[in-house]
Amino acid sequence: MQPTDHISDEYQSVNAPAVAIVVDKQEQFLPLLSSGLATAQMHRGTLTVVFVSQAEEIPDWFALPPEYASANIVQQSITGKNCVRLLIKQLTGLKPVLLGMALDEKEGEDRYLAGKAYEPVLQQLNCPVYLVKSTPDWSFPDSLSAFVPFWDDENSRFAITTALEVSPNLHVTACKVVAPSADKHERLMQQEEFRKQTEIWGKNSRFQTKLLYSFNEQQALLAEAVNHDFLLTGIGKGNNLTRAIFGDFRNELINRTKSPAIILREYQGRAGSVLSRGWSMFDSLLPTLTREDRIEAYRLIRQGGRPNRDFYSMIALSSSIASLGLILDSAAVIIGAMLVAPLMSAIIGMGMASIHGDLRFLRLTLRATLLGSVIAIMTGFLFGLINFDGDTTHQILQRTNPSTLDLVVALVSGVAAAYALCRKNVSNSLPGVAIAVALVPPLSTVGVCLSIGFWGLAWGALKLFLSNMVAIVFASALVFASFGFKPNLDIVKDDRRLKVFQRSFITSAILVLVMLVLLVTRTVHDIHEAAFDDEVQVALTRHLDELNIDAQVAYWKITTTSKDIFQLDIELKSPKEITQNMVKALEKRLEASLKKQVSLDLAVSPIERLHAE
Question: Long-range contacts made by residues 573-577, C-beta under 8 angstroms, separation at least 24?
Fold first, then answer.
C-alpha cells in the first residue's frame, strides 16, 4: 500500500511555538528533546516535536518520557512520500526561533549536514539551526560545561550567546589555539586580543576563556574537548567544496570527537539564504562517485600520470609531428600531434595529487611535466633547424600571442578532462579534450622559434603553455574536490596531506590568477594599441586630403622613443613631388590630432601615370 501524505493534528496547541525539533530515528529523540526543551524554556515558549517518515506508521518510541509530561511540548507527525515538502510548509507556518535536527553521520555523506533528504529544510527555513551529534541516551542536563573552539566570526559568537542563554547552570569555556613559539610579551598580547574579542561576555561568571599553545590546532582542541560535557561550535561558512579547499576544522572536530557535540548556525539573512541556496543547487548538480569509483579513477589517473620510457618517447614523437606541422603550416598535422601527446595525463595527475595531498605523486607528475616539456622544446628546436627559409608560418604565429580566451579554453578543458576520467561513460570524450587545449604544439613552437632566433615569439608560446598547464591543474583539482576526492587523513595523523592539499590547490589558483592578470593586461594593451593604430590611420588619411597631397600610403609604422616621442615612419607613393614644408605641416597636424609629440620620417616613391591614347 502506497503511503499517503499526512500531518497529524492529535497534539495541536494554540500556543505559538518558540522552538522546533525534527526527528526520524529513535536515537535522535532524547538528545534533541532535552536540548530543544531547554531552549524553549529559555524563550518561555512551546517546544514542537515533529516526527517525519515516508511510512504512515508512528513508532511507539515517539512518546514523551514521564519526566517531560508536564512540559509545554506539542507533538506532530508528518508522513507520506512528500513528507519533507510538507515539513517545510509546516515549519514555515510555525516560524520557530530555533530549529533542531540530528547531524548526519553517514560515512561519505559529508556534503549535507542533516542528510541529503533534509537539505532543503536547512536551505529554505528562515531561522537559526542547531544540529546534534550524540549517543542515544545522552540528554541535556541542568548543570554541565560546554567547550567552544573560538573563531572570531558570527557563528562562533552566536554559539556562545545561545549556550549562555539556554540554562542558568551552563558553563562555557571558549578556547583559542596559538603557536607555542611566542615569547612572554607576544603571549600577553595574544591574551589581550582574545579578551577584547570576547569582552561582550566578560562579565558573565559562567563564561571563561583559555588559550591553548600548540602547532596542531585540531589535536589541541580535541584534547581539550574531553574535559567538558559536550563540544559546541558554529558552522563554517561556504559549501562542501570551499570548506574542503580552505579547511574546516569545526566540522573535522565534530567528526573526530567522541563526546556529544552541537553545531549552531545563525540565520544568514535573506541575501545569505539566497546565496546558500545557490551553493546548494550547485552542489546538487554535481555528480557523486562511490568509494569504489573514486578508487578506480585514482588508480587510472595515477597510472597515466606516472612517467616511463613510453611516456617520454611519445612526447618526443608528438613534438616531432607538431614541429613539422608548424613548419609546413598544416593544422591537420598539428591536430594529429595533439592526439598522440600524453602530457595531459601528467598534468591531470598533478591536479589529483594536489587534492589527495600526495606530495610524492605531486613531485612525480611535476617532474614528468617539466622533463616532458624540455624534451618537446628540444625536439622542436632540432626540427626548426631544417626550416631553411627561417620564416614564421601562420600556425607558429597563432601560438605566440595567448589571450584571455585561451586561458578560459584551458580551464573548461581541464574540467572536461577530469570529468571524463572520473565518469567511465564519457571517457571516450578525452581525445576531443586533447584537441581543444594545446599542450605540445606551444612547446614545439618555443623550440622552432628559438632555432630561428625569434626570442619574443618563443616567450609568447611558452606563456601559452604555462597558462594552459596551470589552468588545467586548477580546474581538474576543482572537479576532483567536487567529486569527493580529499586527503586521506586517517593515513597521516599529523595532517601533512591536508597541508599539501591546501597549499598546492591555493598555489595553482594564484598562478591561474597571475596568468589571467598578465593575459588581461596584454589584451587591454593590444586593444589600446589597435585603437591607436586606427586613430593614426584615420588622421593620416584625413590630413593628406586636407593638405592636398596626392599620395597613397604604402606602409607606416609607429615606435616610441625613450623621450616618449612617437616615431612615425611612412612610405608614400605619389606622382608629384612632396616638399619639406608639406612634411612639416603633416607632422604638426598629426600632433594636434593625436595629442602626442610626433617625429615624422617620410619616404616617397614616385608613381608614373600613363594614359592610353
Answer: 573/604, 573/605, 573/606, 573/607, 574/549, 574/550, 574/604, 574/605, 574/606, 574/607, 575/550, 575/606, 575/607, 575/608, 575/609, 576/550, 576/551
pLDDT digits (tens, 9 = 90+) for 109-124: 455 677 778 878 877 7
Distance CA 613, CA 609 (A): 13
Q: What is the pLDDT of residues 183-232, one digit of tens each?
A: 778 888 888 888 888 998 988 889 999 988 887 777 888 888 888 888 88
Identify residue 198 by its one-letter amino acid code: T
Q: Residue 567 is placed in which grid cell?
A: 616615431
Task: Label residues 238-261 b or e (16+ Cβ within 10 Å = b).
Answer: ebbbebbbebbbbbbbbeebebbb
Looking at the DSSP bridge assignments, the partners of residue 172 are: 146, 207
Q: Are the CB atoms for 539 and 592 separated by under 8 Å?
A: no
Grid cell of 319 as nine digits: 613534438
Amino acid occupying residue 390: G
Exposure b/e, 507-520, CB count within 10 A at least 16 = b: ebbebbeebbebbe
Q: What are phi and psi of 563, to 5 degrees?
A: -95, 20
Is the distance from CB of 17 to CB of 45 less than 8 angstroms? yes
Read off the pLDDT band of 39 (50, 70, 90). confident
Residue pair 11/39 in contact (Cβ under 8 Å)? The answer is: no
Q: How many Cβ atoms are within 10 Å of 154's Cβ, its own excluded? A: 14
Encode pLDDT of 460-497 as tens digits. 889 888 888 888 888 888 888 777 777 764 444 445 66
Distance CA 74, CA 525 (A): 69
Residue 248 pLDDT exceeds 60? no
DSSP state string for 149-215: E--SSHHHHHHHHHHHHH-TTEEEEEEEEE-TT--HHHHHHHHHHHHHHTGGGTT-TTEEEEEEE-S
201 and 156 Cβ atoms separated by less than 8 Å: no
Q: Which residues make beta-bridge pairs with 73? A: 47
Name the burial class of residue 300, with classes exposed (0-12), middle (13-18) and buried (19+) by CB atoms within 10 angstroms of its CB: middle
CA 291 to chain centre: 23
Longest CA–CA span in the chain (Å) reads: 124
CA–CA separation, 540 and 435 (whole Å)? 44
Which has the closest alpha carbon to 254: 126, 133, 351, 350?
A: 133
DSSP 234-280: EPPSS-HHHHHHH--HHHHHHHH--S-EEEEE---HHHHHHHHHHHH
Q: How many CB atoms lie within 10 A of CB 358?
A: 23
* C-alpha span between 5 and 382 (Å, rounded): 75
Residue with grid cell 529544510, as numbered in its chain: 121
Note whether 586 and 592 are within 8 A (CB). Answer: no
